Amino acid sequence: MFPFGFLLDTSVKAGGIEFFWKASILTLIFLFLRITTQKYVLRSLFYYLVPRSFVHTEGCERVEKRVRELGLSSTNDESLTKLVKLNHVTRNEVNEFKTFNKLLKKHENLIGKCCDEFMSTICRAVLVSVGAYLFWDHECWSNQKLYHAGKRMNESEILYIYIEFIWHFHKCFILVFDHKQNDIISMGTHHAVTITMIFISLWFDMHIYTCVMFFIHDISDVFLSLSKTLHYLQWKPWDVYMFGVVGATWYISRNYWFIKHPLHAAYICVFDGGCDLRNKAKYIGVSCCFFCLLILQFLHIYWGWRIIQVVLRKLGGGELKDFRSASEAEDRASRKNR
Predict the structure, then answer these.
(1) CA dihedral angle for residue 115, residue 117, residue 123, residue 128, rounded to 10 degrees
(2) Preceding amide of 237 cis, omega within 30
């Protein structure tokens, strides 16, 4: 018997409470497993993989030696203040300790980012594999009428919808608590619209829209997460090569396939007589799907332009920078001020 058989009730509508509480419980379980894996498994791994070359300077080695001499377990502001009062350290040593703390914090921040992006790479690779298995040769690619044909989902498609909902719902939930991002508004909009799209498409029996959208999105996302992991590990020039793959797959999948298939199918139905206007429920459902897809396409164009900016900066002799990360933006600003 299938171990998650309680999920496979095809009579469950996404707009109903039953779907939501099942998916919410699974989201909390996945969130717990992800945090636990990153904290106790991946963090130990990336502690040794993330380079500490910026810490191994002459000044930092001197600070480390001084810390060992004083028998300090921490060099926070409170402990340094006590040492100054006891005349155990000088003011210059305090400044060196604070600089050293900032470098260690930067290293810890890189470890956290590597854990997050590597975990995202694994999860998205699984999502791409499942999506390819279900929809690589699906009839909807050649017959767009299947998008709004009202065909019922099979068990595999239901599970695919569940795991994609869990992924986007947990990302929406932890977006604020993750390492800071500059584009929190656009990312939050993306996850919110995607979740809304799930409910709308399944409520009106148009799950093909959602499944194809997921598959198209995940193709470039898996390479993006891998590129960012290589970037934080400072594995050059492999991070640059992988970012080139990101740019290619982004424009092929999101600015070609996405427009040609789900967005075009919804447009034909709403504006070109592709739907039976007498069936108002279907027309309303497709119209809502088209509106959600259009918002996502605007986000694709915006992020595509940001990718072009990163490429132009690299071609101009600059370095690859994660424009979504607020910490990297702060680093650039501090260097400019200096």
Answers:
(1) -160
(2) yes
Rounded Cα gap, residues 143 and 149, in angstroms: 10
Q: What percent of the chain has pLDDT over 70?
A: 70
The Cα diameter of the chain in Å comes to 86
CA 79, CA 77: separation in Å to the nearest integer? 6
Cβ neighbors of 34 (< 8 A, separation 6 or more) are: 119, 170
From the list 116, 120, 117, 118, the residue with the least C-alpha distance to 128 is: 120
- Tell me the pLDDT tens digit for each residue of 272-300: 766 665 677 778 888 899 999 999 999 99
Question: Where are the domains positioned within the chain?
Answer: 5-48+106-337
State whether the Cα torsion 254-113-132-194 is positive or negative. negative
Contacts of 126 (CB under 8 A, 6+ apart): none
CA distance linking residue 20 with residue 38, whole number of Å: 26
Spell out the SS3 assignment of 122-186: HHHHHHHHHHHHHHCCCHHHCCHHHHHCCCCCCHHHHHHHHHHHHHHHHHHHHCCCCCCECCHHH
Grouping H, G, I as helix, E, B as strand and the rest as coil, residue 325 is strand
| Distance in angstroms (rounded) separating the CA atoms of residues 102 and 95 | 11
Instruction: Provide the b/e sequence for 31-47 (b: ≥16 CB within 10 Å).
Output: beebeeebeeebeeebe
Task: Quote the Cα angle for 124-247-130, to 5°.
Answer: 25
Strands (E), the chain: none
User: What's the mean pLDDT in 201-216?
Assistant: 88
What is the residue-averaged pLDDT of the chain? 78
CB 187 within 8 A of CB 168: no
Using alpha carbons, select from 216, 217, 215 the residue that is nearest to residue 190: 217
Question: What is the model's pLDDT at position 61?
Answer: 58
HSE, side-chain direction, 13 A CA sphere, residue 338 = 6
CB under 8 Å to 14, separation ≥6 — which residues?
161, 198, 199, 201, 202, 203
Measure the CA–CA gap between 338 and 335, rounded to whole angstroms: 5
Taking alpha carbons only, the member of 273, 282, 146 closest to residue 212 is 146
Q: Which residues on adjacent β-strands are paired with residue 325?
A: 181
